[in-house]
Amino acid sequence: MRNQQKKREIFYKTFCNGNILLTDSKTAEMAKLVENSFRDVNIAFANELSIICDQLGINVWELIELANRHPRVNILNPGPGVGGHCIAVDPWFIVDAAPSHSRLMRTAREVNDAKPQWVIDKVFAKAGCFKKPVIGCLGLAFKANVDDLRESPALEITRRLMASHIGEVMACEPYINENYSEFPLFTLGQVLDKADILVTLVDHEVFKSIDHEILKEKIVIDARGIWSKYDH
Asked: Is 32 a catalytic residue?
């Protein structure tokens, strides 16, 4: 076994500049799954906390900043769900391999998978204030400042809102060009001009620079905490 590992180390050193950490293949694969599952569980804590704070009338963004002042606390920021090819998928491999002993990971997946519907319910609650609401969905990517749509909760939310025929849905994704074909995309200016309800689904840098005076004229559902940090 050690001779085989040594041969692998020599091989990987031909094209890797970093440290080569040797282990067996099963442990190596599990390490990758555990890294992403750890992230998923921590995100689930933040997402669940955001739902609790919403019910209790507490600003979750301010709460997290205060709690994180403790040197051993590092709560992540909540969002509309979890996306990407790894974090949203990898925990299920562990759950499938040991279903009776992976209750925490399964629950975390369920919490994160349910968050998009929670955001949609918030939109529906606000849309009732309008006869024909125009809903602006800001961001489709699975995380900020990229064009990657894999397993994106933002894209899922936008699709569901469109399918519900709740009103006119205008999607803005500045990192995707005009060749996107699933549904029309609009510029940020077009969305800000027309939308009655703004739903922040991705914390792209360009969205953070929106004039707050414009936001005062809109109903804002800020799922990424871009503007809500100190709103009361």
From this structure: yes
> What pTM was estimated for this model as a whole?
0.90
Q: Is the pLDDT of residue 130 over 70?
A: yes
Catalytic residue among 86, 115, 137, 143: 86
Indicate the Cα dihedral angle 56, 58, 60, 66, nearest 10°: -130
Total domain count, the chain: 1
Would you say residue 176 lies in a domain?
Answer: yes
Q: Where are the alpha helices (DSSP H) in 13-146?
A: 25-56, 60-67, 90-97, 103-127
In a domain, 231, yes or no: no
Strand partners, 169: 135
Q: Is residue 227 part of a domain?
A: no
| CATH code for position 62 | 3.40.50.720
CA proximity to 140, closest of 125, 123, 121, 161: 161
Distance CA 150, CA 195 (A): 26
- Spot the catalytic one: 6, 7, 13, 32: 32
Q: What is the pLDDT of residue 6?
A: 76
Active site residue 132: no
- Beta carbons of 171 and 140 less than 8 angstroms apart: yes
